[in-house]
Amino acid sequence: MQPLGSPVSRGFLCAGRLCLCGADLRMNIAVALLSPPYSTLTYAAPPEFPEGLWKPGLRLLVPLGAAGAIRAGMVLPAGGEAPEGLKLRPALWPLEREPLCPAVWIEMVYALAERQMLAPGKIIGSVLPAAFRSAGGRLRRERAGSRPELLSSGEVARLAQSARAELAADWLAGNADWLAPHADAAASEQCVLLQDPPWPVRPAAVRQMEVLEYLYGHGAVSRRALLRALGAGSRTALDALAGRGLIAIRTRDEEEEPEPGEGLLPPPPPLFSLSPAQTEAAARCEALLDAGKPAAELVYGVTGSGKTALYFELAKRCLQRGRSVFILAPEVALALKLRRDAREMLGGSAAVFFFHGYQSPGHKERVFGELSRRSAPCVVVGTRSALFLPLTNVGLIVLDEEHDASFKQDEGLVYHAKEVAWFLAWRQKALLVLGSATPDVKTFHAAQEGRIGLLSLPSRVGGGTLPDIRLVNIRDALPEEALLAPESLKVLQSTVEAGEQAVVLLNRRGYAPLMYCLDCGKAVRCPNCDIALTYHKGLERMVCHYCGCSVPFPLPCPSCRGMHFLPMGQGTEKAEEWLASLLPDGCGVLRLDRDSTRCPGKMEAILEAFAAREAQVLVGTQMLSKGHHFPDVTLVALLDVDGALFSADFRAAERFAQLYTQVSGRAGRAGKQG
Predict the structure, then answer these.
(1) 205: left (phi > 0), else alpha (psi -120 to 50), else beta?
(2) How far apart are CA 165 and CA 152, in angstroms?
(3) How many C-beta atoms surround the C-beta of residue 500 within 10 A?
(4) Which are the contacts of 174, defined by CB distance < 8 A and separation ≥ 6?
(5) Residue 253: how many CB atoms within 10 A of its CB?
(6) Distance of CA 569 to the CA centre of its chain
(7) Closest CA to 48 of 133, 227, 171, 175
(8) 642 by DSSP, 3-state: which?
(9) What pLDDT score was predicted for residue 627?
(10) From 220's CA, which of 265, 276, 281, 306 has a CA 20 to 30 Å away?
(11) Which residues pair with 193 in a beta bridge?
(12) CA-CA distance, 90 to 30, in Å (whole number)?
């Protein structure tokens, strides 16, 4: 890979047609294209604008190739000199007056580009919200005594030199502005699934089922993207489903980030004085905040030891020093809890922004744009992608549940949030706090070796005690068709009868992980991956959890064409169904997994219902194992726990220990024995 400063990486031969008319004496600009081929090209600064405008992080429009194409790009540092005899094409127009992204953000892009061996434009194009990568939009020019003039990028490019200079003068004077891209209706309308399967759709309505299954698998998408994926013939089916209330079609202006209900989590406990261990940890971290150099600390505390209270105490002290804060969680459910905690513990003393990858494009653009213009300190709560927000003067970065594998992104742009967080802390001389009851082995080893600090919170706050843990051998005790051993089922029934709540964890979604053909003795396998397909009863399909391939069920056996199947094993769907049939009427059983939370707001609704005691049993996958605080939960049951030990992952034992320790910590958190 050529270094960025070399002529090859500057893309002199790609920026436009060659013209051997002598060297161009104007300032040169290095520009990273924000769409394929993501090249870093060099352009001449347009003579209509002052050279001081072209700062790194500023977005602009540039011409590309001989066909008159116009692309969006971002200014990078060090444009360099053009080779002798080469005249560069000038850039077209700036998209803003001040850089969208600060200098530290650009440095982070360079670090990721070097680490992943990618072009800077590819990194920027992967993390910027969609509207900021677009070359669309129009230039609006206010004219005295007449209607405003609107010019597209193509019309601006075709203006004569004198007309463009006059337009640039108006822009610099504030009489013209570049408007956001004007998307057509198909691109601006978002299609959102409103109902979980099974859907009340006739078997012959194949197109409608295709639309529902696409939204179920991909989440909210634009009408244009859906029609492009399924064909224009799906337009009628889409309108019919919207008319029946199974999906909603919302315009960008109608997109709103759903707020969790007031009962999403139990009311926060009354404010209390920090325990001696918390006080000591806060004092040590405060000294690091004032040291003026980067630092990292591992907060190693048992479940319920008050790590969250420590995070927000440090956030208060950081805000008092005029510096901003990142508080990140590995999953959206935990980030929702942290946002509620931020609002309760910080009150109205700080602006709190919420950001994660599943939010609508409009919300992401609003948050990104507002933070790019913000100079006052604030708090950003979110998941790993929030680290790419253009936040400056950061003093504290917190990664809660730092051991969680969700902090690593394996698809698209590959990165680990801990590495990005440490880079930002190092560049901004901030404090990085890693918190967990079950730290990553590498993090814990680094703390023991003295490479990072170690803060210990060894006991629960508020009088809570760690739960008793009992291992039940089900080799000979498990009756046919039962998911829990008799002893476990008896304890669960006693818990429900006592009016308390229970959490049942089975880290396998779907109804049954294997469908066994009784006629030929073979399991139905994925045609792509050759692994058993998982039966999803509500969806009425068999799905591969590796590649996403799905087939309808019932279906003839691919091997013998028989129709007699036996579902083997169990997933969360089956556990929910089985428990609901055995437990007393009225106790209620809820399920929390990726399948039950695909509709917008469904995760919040499930957690709210359980917190409000509308159900006494919550069944789910590892989504419910961390961070949640339900005072009435006194029992946690783990099903098929030893199955996790047979994974091909060399860290299977470590991940298994982290999972059962975390989920056991949901019990006995409010003075009751768990």
Answers:
(1) beta
(2) 16
(3) 18
(4) none
(5) 8
(6) 31
(7) 171
(8) helix
(9) 63
(10) 265
(11) 247
(12) 11
Please state, in angstroms and rounded to a whole number, the distance separating the CA atoms of residues 229 and 234.
10
| CA-wise closest residue to 119 among 52, 82, 73 | 73
pLDDT at 265: 44
Structure tokens at 492: 């669960």
- Distance from C-alpha of 610 to C-alpha of 590, rounded to nearest angstrom: 8
pLDDT given for residue 477 in this prediction: 61
In the chain, DSSP finds a helix count (H) and a strand count (E) of 19, 29
Residue 63 main-chain phi, psi, to 5 deg: -80, 150
Instruction: Please report the DSSP string for 12-38 in residue order.
Output: TTTSS----S----SPEEEEEESSTT-
pLDDT on residue 18: 32
Cβ pair 228, 258 in contact under 8 A = no
- What is the rounded distance in angstroms from the CA atom of residue 162 to the CA atom of residue 268? 64
Q: How far apart (Å, rounded) are the C-alpha atoms in residues 215 and 193? A: 6
DSSP string, 255-297: --PPPPPTTSSPPPPPP-PPPHHHHHHHHHHHHHHTTTS-EEE
pLDDT attached to residue 386: 95
pLDDT of residue 6: 31
Q: Taking the CB of residue 667, how many other CB atoms lie within 10 A of it?
A: 27
Q: At what angle do helices 235-243 and 206-218 cross, to 10 degrees?
A: 80
Angle formed by the axes of helices 206-218 and 223-230, nearest 10° = 120
Contacts of 528 (CB under 8 A, 6+ apart): 544, 547, 549
In terms of Cα–Cα distance, which of 565, 556, 507, 559 is closest to 537?
565
* 252 closest CA partner among 232, 229, 222: 222
- pTM for this structure? 0.81
Strands of 460-570 (E only): list them: 501-505, 514-517, 534-536, 541-543, 550-552, 565-568
pLDDT score, position 98 = 93
Of 234, 230, 236, 241, the closest CA to residue 200 belongs to 241
What are the residues whose beta carbons fall under 8 Å from the beta carbon of 389, sequence distance 6 or more? 353, 355, 367, 368, 371, 380
pLDDT value for 183: 42
Written as six digits, the tokens of 423 are 């880079």
Phi-psi region of 530 (alpha: psi -120 to 50; beta: other; left: phi over 0): left
Q: Mark the ranges of the chain whose per-residue pLDDT is less than 50.
A: 1-25, 182-186, 253-267, 269-270
* 362 token code pair: 């409009």
Dump the DSSP string for 350-391.
S-EEEE-TTS-HHHHHHHHHHHHH--S--EEEESGGGGGS--
